[in-house]
Structures are given as structure tokens and as C-alpha cells.
Task: inverse folding
């Protein structure tokens, strides 16, 4: 399984999750876990997704999500899971 | 499974606290490029470096994108050129030709520095070593990316004072030949005692003869991350302070280990070491001096600085060692002056002197680094400062180094601007008393005894 972590941070607005999820669905990227909070008006979302069945390369997904983020006015980051595993798990 | 707070913590380190991987450095052995014909040697050097490192920059950028962590520098270190060029270089200009070859290939593959224009003369100097040392001023003046280093002493051999005397003159000459750029050449030249074979950091990186054909070494950074972590434990005990530094160093180093393993896999080059370092940059919030202030000093240089730095350096190693499978290089806190805004502030406030910096180098990595001194400082005085610093390394079995910049045409109170990662520096005063008769003695300082530790 090729797990990615997607984080979305920015001002809360209608349809953030919808836009991101639509993109993921269109590209056969499966959502494994999703958590979301609003901290003082700021939207914070983290998703763990699996890109095993996606036809897209990792680099393209990063660039696409970045563009979607720009459109909604939030920052969307997509990183491989290992960076967090290395840092927080022995 | 990873939780949201851990993800936010990691991303905050990158976005707000300047966490980065400072450098991926590929070490390349040039021993198989030795040839009695200079042109043939240069061609072999060019081809081997190009073939080995053509994908280095691209790979670094790819890894940075995948993990969302910046990899600031991609660099190359090579076998000390005095060893490679000995068979074909009949004079200093021949060595300069090799330097130009190195500069050209560094530009072709897109790295931002190439280290290894070096000689290892800790006990004695060969004809090739001397020709290389004498070629350094010209080589650094006519290249952009070549870095030079000379190992002048070691705990096992003592200090080669003939070479120390020569390097004092070479540093002056290098400053003179690059005077139109504020003597920038000297920022690319460092002298060592106990130089490590696997250091990924410039200007002192070279690929030692004990190393494999090619190797990937990674240097991590993250003073800003440590500083921010310490903000939450103000007023707490030393135990809490030390635990916080260790845990933070662990996390930072894990990123380096991951990047090193990934780069090694993608390039098909074995993984060498992670250098556990706190390497500052001139960016605000990326300062080792600021950590010392956070520990409790008004300025770096205040009484207590050496103890605070010793503590910091030791905890960084303790935290980092478990995070990486192989640790090496210079591992420790760096205290360059021009590259660290907190250090610059301390010098400008009058809190930090050359003598205090020398004391600080006894307990941390690496030495008197990126210090601008008046351009009229005598060569023998520079040699005297070098000898002092190397003696600290020799007696204490550690690596020490000196990177001084005698800025031609400028004096105490003036400022010199190097730009980029090299930063800017106020020119520091140097003790005016003479050491001519000491430095002018021929020969070497014998290796020290390792008993009767007092």
C-alpha cells in the first residue's frame, strides 16, 4: 500500500472537503482515514489515503492538489507517510 | 496510525522553524583517475564525477517533494586532489587546471559546492601537497564552486608547523586575490586538525582514502526547531532541558536518516553517514546562538556560554545517535559567526570575542568558523591562531578547524557582506602582540601523550 498524508490548512469555507474528495475519487485514490477540526476559524484537515490504484504519479498528485488549494484559498500539502513515521515512531 | 497532531508538529517544524536537510553530499573517489598526463587526468576526473552525480540534484529535488522537507544543498566531495594530481602536476598552475575542471563539472551537474581541493599534511608535506597548497589562492580566485581544505595536524601525529606557517601566508594571499569580492575566497578555505573522512559539510568536505568508491552522506540541521522546543520549558530543571533537546534532536535526525536512505536507494550509491549537526543559517530563527540565549544567556559569549554549549552539543549527539544507523562527519553544534544572526548580534554588542569563541570550540563542533578579521593582520598571527585552535583538537582528540577571512582594505568596526548562506560579519579585533618567533620555528609539534590526563 502506498500511503500518503494530505493536510489542508486555511480559512474555513464551503466545499473544501467536497473538492478534495472529488479529486481523489476521480483519480482512484482511496481515503483510509480522515480527521478535521476548526481552530479559531481555521480549517485543519488530515487525510490518510492510498494511491495504489491511481494512474497518476505522486508528483502530479502533489501539483494537482496544490492547484486545487490555490483555487479555494487554502494550503494543501501531500507527503509520503514515511516522513511522519520516521519522526514519530521508533 | 499517525495522528493529526504529529502531522501538524512535523509540518510546523518545516514551515515555521526552518527544519531542513542541509545537504546531501555525494563522496566520489578519484583515485582511479590518476594519470601521468594532465589532460588525461582532467578528462577522467570530469567523466567520473559527471557519470556519478548527474542525477544527484534531480534526486534531491524529488525527495524534497515527496516528503515535503526542503533539501537545501546538493554537493560533491572528492578524494584530496593532492593525491590525485601528484602524478601529473609539475607546478601550481597544473593544479589550478584541475580546480577549473572540478568547477566546470560542478556547474554541469548543478551542485552548489564541490569539496576536496585538499591536502593531508598532518605529519609531513609531499612535493604535490606543497604545490597544491601554493595553488589554492589562484584556484579559489578563478573558480566559483570549488572548496579547499588542508589537514594540518592530528592527535596521532602532532601538528605540522611548517604547513601551519605556509597556510597563514596562503590565507593572506587568497584574501588578496579575491579582494574585489571582500576576500570571499577565504570563505571557501578551511584548515583542520583531525579532519574526518566523511564530512558532508563545506568548506571542509573531502572524500577520504578510507572510503568506498562512492557514498552518500547527509547533513541535517534544525537550530530553529530546538529553539522553539526550548521555549516551552523556560525555567525548568536541567533534566527537563536536556530531555527536550534530546527528543528534538532525535526527530530532526530521523528526517536526515530517511532522506539519506532514500537518496542512497534512488541513486544506487551506498549510504555512508548522517552528520548530526545544528548548522545555522543567516535566516532569522535559524541560529545556534539563539538556542544559547533560550537556555538562559543574555548573549552568546556571556559567562556560562561554554557550559551551555557543552550541554547542547552533548544532548544533540545523545538524541541523534539513536535516530541514525550510522553517524559520522563533524556531528555537533556549529558556531560560525557570519552565518548565524545571533552570533553576529553578540559580536556587535561586544559580548563575544575571538578568545571566547576559541574556548567554545573546545566543547563543540568545529572551530573558529567564518570569522572576519582586519585585512592587515599578519600572516604569522593567522598561523598563531591556527596553531592554537589545532592544539585544542590535538590534545582533546576532536576535530577542530579554522576558517578566517582577513578582509583586505577593511578594519575593526566595519562589516563585510558575503551574501547567501555565508551571511555577513562584523570585523573582529585580533590580539596585536607578535608570535613571529614561535611560528617561524621550523618543524612540527610532536604527538601528545595520552596518559596523565590533567
Result:
Amino acid at each position: 500500500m502506498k500511503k500518503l498524508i494530505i493536510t489542508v490548512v486555511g480559512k474555513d469555507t464551503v466545499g473544501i472537503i467536497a473538492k478534495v474528495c472529488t479529486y481523489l475519487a476521480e483519480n482512484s485514490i482511496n481515503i483510509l482515514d480522515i480527521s478535521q477540526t476548526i481552530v479559531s476559524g481555521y480549517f485543519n484537515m488530515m487525510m490518510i489515503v492510498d494511491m495504489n490504484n491511481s494512474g497518476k504519479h505522486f508528483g502530479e498528485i502533489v501539483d494537482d492538489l496544490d492547484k486545487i488549494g490555490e483555487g479555494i484559498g487554502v494550503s494543501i500539502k501531500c507527503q509520503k507517510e514515511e516522513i511522519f513515521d520516521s519522526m514519530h515512531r521508533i | 496510525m499517525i495522528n493529526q497532531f504529529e502531522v501538524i508538529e512535523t509540518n510546523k517544524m518545516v514551515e515555521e522553524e526552518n527544519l531542513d536537510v542541509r545537504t546531501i553530499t555525494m563522496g566520489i573517489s578519484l583515485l582511479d583517475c590518476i594519470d601521468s598526463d594532465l589532460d588525461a587526468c582532467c578528462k577522467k576526473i570530469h567523466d567520473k564525477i559527471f557519470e556519478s552525480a548527474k542525477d544527484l540534484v534531480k534526486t534531491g529535488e524529488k525527495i524534497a517533494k515527496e516528503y515535503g522537507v526542503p533539501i537545501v544543498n546538493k554537493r560533491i566531495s572528492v578524494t584530496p586532489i593532492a593525491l590525485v594530481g601528484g602524478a601529473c602536476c609539475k607546478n601550481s598552475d597544473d593544479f589550478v587546471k584541475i580546480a577549473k575542471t572540478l568547477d566546470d563539472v560542478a556547474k554541469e551537474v548543478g551542485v552548489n559546492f564541490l569539496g576536496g581541493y585538499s591536502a593531508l599534511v598532518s605529519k609531513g608535506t609531499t612535493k604535490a601537497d606543497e604545490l597544491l597548497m601554493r595553488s589554492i589562492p589562484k584556484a579559489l580566485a578563478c573558480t566559483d564552486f570549488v572548496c579547499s581544505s588542508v589537514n594540518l595536524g592530528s592527535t596521532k601525529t602532532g601538528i605540522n608547523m611548517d604547513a601551519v606557517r605556509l597556510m597563514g601566508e596562503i590565507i593572506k594571499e587568497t584574501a588578496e586575490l579575491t579582494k574585489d569580492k571582500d576576500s570571499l575566497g577565504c570563505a571557501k578555505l578551511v584548515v583542520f586538525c583531525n579532519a574526518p573522512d566523511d564530512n558532508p559539510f563545506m568548506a571542509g568536505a573531502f572524500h577520504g582514502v578510507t572510503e568506498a568508491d562512492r557514498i552518500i552522506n547527509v547533513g541535517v540541521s534544525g537550530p530553529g526547531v530546538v529553539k522553539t522546543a526550548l521555549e516551552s520549558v523556560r525555567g525548568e530543571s536541567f533534566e527537563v532541558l536536556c530531555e527536550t533537546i534530546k527528543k528534538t534532536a532525535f526527530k530532526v535526525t530521523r528526517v536526515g536518516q530517511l532522506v539519506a536512505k532514500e537518496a542512497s536507494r534512488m541513486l544506487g550509491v551506498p549510504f555512508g553517514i548522517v552528520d548530526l549537526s545544528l548548522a545555522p543559517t543567516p535566516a532569522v530563527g535559524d541560529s545556534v546562538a539563539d538556542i544559547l540565549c533560550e537556555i538562559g544567556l543574555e548573549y552568546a559569549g556571556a559567562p556560562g556560554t561554554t557550559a551551555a554549549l557543552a550541554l547542547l552539543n552533548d544532548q544533540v549527539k545523545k538524541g541523534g545517535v539513536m535516530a541514525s544507523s550510522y553517524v559520522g562527519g563533524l556531528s555537533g553544534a556549529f558556531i560560525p559567526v557570519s552565518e548565524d544572526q545571533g552570533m553576529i548580534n553578540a559580536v556587535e554588542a561586544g559580548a563575544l570575542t575571538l578568545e571566547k569563541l576559541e574556548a567554545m570550540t573546545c566543547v563543540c563542533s568545529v572551530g573558529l568558523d567564518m570569522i572576519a578579521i582586519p585585512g592587515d593582520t599578519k600572516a604569522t598571527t593567522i598561523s598563531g591562531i591556527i596553531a592554537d585552535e589545532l592544539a585544542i583538537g590535538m590534545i582533546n582528540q576532536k576535530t577542530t578547524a579554522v576558517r578566517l577571512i582577513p578582509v583586505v582594505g577593511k578594519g575593526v568596526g566595519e562589516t563585510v557582506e558575503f551574501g547567501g548562506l555565508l551571511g555577513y560579519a562584523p570585523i573582529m579585533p585580533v590580539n596585536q602582540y607578535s608570535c613571529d618567533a614561535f611560528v617561524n620555528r621550523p618543524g612540527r609539534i610532536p604527538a601528545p601523550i595520552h596518559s596523565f590526563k590533567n
